[in-house]
Specification:
heterodimer; A: alpha/beta; about 25% helix; B: alpha/beta; 8-stranded parallel beta sheet; 13 helices; 9 strands
Chain lengths: ~190, ~300
C-alpha cells in the first residue's frame, strides 16, 4: 500500500496538487482540520496566498501540529506559498512561518502578475526537464548549510530539500509535469 | 528554453492560487489592510463599492490610478481593478500600472455596447462576469482566464448569483450528456465557440476557474455559493457596508474555506451586527439591473 498523503486545503490550488498526486497513483486527502494530520506520511502545502493561509491557520493549533508532524517524521512539500510558510525567515514583508526549513525567503520577489513566467527546469535526480510556472513567485535569499539545492533558475535556488522538508518556489502542479510529485511520493515509501 | 510570460496557463494559474478564497472590494488603503488582515486572498480596488455606484447614478469609470497605487503599496496580496466593458484603453492603463487581474465589469458603465475587450492581446489576466454557460464561453473565447457569476452587484441579495451559478452549472452538466453530433447545434444555440463547447462536454467543467460574485453578504451566502460550484467568492458591498467590516470579512473567509462544515459556518455567523440592508431584485427596474450589461 502506498503512503497516506494529504494536501492542506484551507485555500489555494490544493485541487491541482491532489490531481497531480492522484495521477501518480496516490489517494490524497484534503486536509482542513488539525486532527486530519493523524496517520499521514506526507503533506503538501500548496500555492495560494501565504497571508490567507497564515490567517486561517490561527484558528487551530496548526503551527504546533505541523512542527510535531515534522518531528515525528512526516514529510512536508511546500510550493510557492507553501515554500514561504515552511521557511525560517520571511521578508517583504516579514511574517510568521513554520520554520521547518533553514532558509530565508522573499515574497513576490520577481514582481507582479505580469512578470510571472513559465520555464523548464533541470532537476537533480529527475531524468526529464520539468515544465513549471513561477506565479508571483518568492525567492530564496539565504539557505542554511544543511539545505540541499535540487534546481536553480537564473542562478537562484528554486527547489530545495532539508531532511524531509521539500520546498519549491514554483508550481509543478499546474503544468501537468508530475515528475516532482512522483519523486516526492517515492521518498515517502 | 526561454521563459514565457502572459501565457493562458499563467493567467489561469493565478486564478488557481485564489481558489478557496475571498476577493474583497476595497476603496482605499485602510480598507485594503482590513481585508488582508481578515484573510482576503486578493482585493478589488474601486472608487466606490457597487451599492454606492447604484445609489449615486451617473457614469461609473475605471478608478483613479492613484487610489489603486496606494492600495498596491499597502498590501502584499494580489490587487485587481475594474475596466469598463469594451474599454481596452482603461485595460491598457491598468496593465501598465501592474495590477494583477482586470475585471471587465458590468458594475461600471459599459464603454462599448457591442464588443468586449480582446483579452488575448494582454499579458495581464482578465476575469469576466456571466449569467449562463453561453456567456461564460464567449468571454473565455475572448481570452478571459477566470469566470465569475454576475449576480446583481450592490444589492446584498444573493438570489441572482444563485440563479446564474445554477444556470451555468446545469448548462455544463447538460453538455456532458449530449452526443458528439449534438454539440454543434448546442454551440449555435448557446452562441458559444464550438471548440470550447467540446472541451466542456469532455471535461464536465469550464476550462478556467469559476468564481461567484454579485450579492454575497453573509457567511452562509458564501458557503452556499461554494456548495453550488463556486471555487472562490468575490464580495463587494457586503463587507464594507456592514456594521462590522473586519468581523464580517473574517467570517466570510472562514465560511468560504469550511463551507462543508455547518458548525464552523454557524460559529462565524454569530454576533456580526447589522449586515448591509440589501435590495429586493423586483424593486430594481429592468433597465437599472447591472447584469444586463454585456452579452
Amino acid at each position: 500500500m502506498s503512503a497516506s498523503v494529504g494536501v492542506l486545503a484551507l485555500q489555494g490550488d490544493y485541487e491541482a496538487h491532489a490531481k497531480a498526486l492522484a495521477r501518480c497513483g496516490a489517494s490524497p486527502l484534503e486536509i482542513r482540520r488539525v486532527a486530519q494530520l493523524d496517520g499521514l506520511a506526507g503533506l503538501v502545502i500548496p500555492g495560494g496566498e501565504s497571508t490567507t493561509l497564515l490567517n486561517l491557520m490561527r484558528d487551530e493549533p496548526w503551527f504546533e501540529a505541523l512542527r510535531a508532524f515534522d518531528a515525528r517524521g512526516g514529510s512536508v512539500f511546500g510550493t510557492c506559498a507553501g515554500a514561504i510558510l515552511v521557511s525560517r525567515e520571511v521578508r517583504h514583508p516579514a511574517q510568521d512561518s513554520l520554520a521547518l526549513l533553514d532558509a530565508t525567503i522573499e515574497r513576490n520577489a520577481y514582481g507582479r502578475q505580469v512578470d510571472s513566467f513559465e520555464t523548464e527546469l533541470a532537476v537533480a535526480g529527475l531524468a526529464a526537464p520539468l515544465g513549471v510556472a513561477f506565479i508571483r513567485a518568492p525567492r530564496f535569499v539565504a539557505l542554511g548549510p544543511g539545505v540541499e539545492v535540487l534546481a536553480t533558475h537564473a542562478d537562484a535556488p528554486v527547489l530545495v530539500r532539508e531532511g524531509r522538508v521539500v520546498a519549491a518556489t514554483f508550481h509543478p502542479e499546474i503544468t501537468g509535469a508530475d515528475g516532482l510529485h512522483a519523486w516526492w511520493l517515492r521518498t515517502l515509501s | 528554453m526561454t521563459d514565457s510570460i502572459g501565457t493562458l496557463r499563467l493567467k489561469t494559474g493565478l486564478a488557481e492560487m485564489l481558489k478557496g478564497g475571498v476577493i474583497m472590494d476595497v476603496t482605499n488603503a485602510e480598507q485594503a489592510k482590513i481585508a488582508e488582515d481578515a484573510g482576503a486572498c486578493a482585493v478589488m480596488a474601486l472608487e466606490r463599492v457597487p451599492s454606492d455606484i447604484r445609489k449615486d447614478g451617473g457614469v461609473a469609470r475605471m478608478t483613479d490610478p492613484r487610489i489603486i497605487e496606494q492600495i498596491m503599496e499597502t498590501v502584499s496580496i494580489p490587487v485587481m481593478a475594474k475596466c469598463r466593458i469594451g474599454h481596452f484603453t482603461e485595460a491598457r492603463v491598468l496593465e501598465a500600472m501592474g495590477v494583477d487581474y482586470i475585471d471587465e465589469s458590468e458594475v461600471l458603465t459599459p464603454a462599448d455596447e457591442e464588443f468586449h475587450v480582446d483579452k488575448h492581446a494582454f499579458t495581464v489576466p482578465f476575469v469576466c462576469g456571466c449569467r449562463n454557460l453561453g456567456e461564460a464561453l464567449r468571454r473565455i473565447g475572448e481570452g478571459a482566464a477566470m469566470i465569475r457569476t454576475k449576480g446583481e452587484a450592490g444589492t446584498g441579495n444573493v438570489v441572482e448569483a444563485v440563479r446564474h451559478m445554477r444556470a451555468l452549472m446545469s448548462g455544463i452538466k447538460r453538455l456532458t450528456i449530449l452526443g458528439p453530433e449534438e454539440l454543434m447545434t448546442e454551440a449555435k444555440n448557446l452562441g458559444a465557440p464550438y471548440e470550447l463547447v467540446r472541451m466542456v462536454a469532455r471535461d464536465g467543467k469550464l476550462p478556467v476557474p469559476n468564481f461567484s460574485a454579485g450579492g454575497i453578504a453573509t457567511p452562509a451566502d458564501a458557503a452556499l455559493m461554494r456548495a453550488l460550484g463556486a471555487e472562490a467568492n468575490f464580495v463587494g458591498s457586503g463587507i464594507f457596508k456592514s456594521q462590522n467590516p473586519a468581523k464580517v470579512a473574517k467570517a466570510i473567509v472562514r465560511a468560504t474555506t469550511h463551507w462543508q462544515d455547518a458548525k464552523i459556518v454557524l460559529e462565524v455567523s454569530k454576533d456580526l451586527g447589522e449586515p448591509m440592508k440589501g435590495l429586493e431584485i423586483g424593486s430594481i427596474p429592468e433597465n437599472e439591473r447591472l447584469q444586463g450589461r454585456g452579452w
